[in-house]
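Form 7-S
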Amino acid sequence: MPWQPAEVVHQHDVRKLCVSAYHGHKQGCPNHGKKEGCPPKAPLLSDICDPAYPTFVIWNRFEFGEHVARMKELHPQWSDYQLACCLYWQGTARKTLGVQLKEFELFKPVYSVTTCPEGMGVNVTETMKRLGVELEWPPVKYAYQVAVGFVRLPKKKEVIDELPPSTTEG
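Output:
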């Protein structure tokens, strides 16, 4: 099954990963501060998730090792970095996750989904470990795309009515 109820590990400092330098990005992820689902615009999941409902993890497993081997056959002169480059595999993997998300939304129509749980303070590695899935960093055999399905807390209504008169005499 591509989704499962899970105890999501909230670890707000995981959002620091978004501004950590990585190959070709000294300032961290270029979506930080720009994309709606990314920090600091994205709310913390723990602030908007209704704990009265189960939280689900939706994921797919991409055959990363097979992809790298196939690319090495096609491009024997490429470096290891080029062979593993996400530009050549992530679109296919995300498409598969998208199909699974559509299926999930048919079964759980009142749920919201985030495809960027780290940006909302979810420690994906620890959450997946609780489901018995060990993520490889960096990926060698498998790469995973992970989303979280949750029910939003109801929005608080503004109090418009005047306060009732005091019932105590004084």
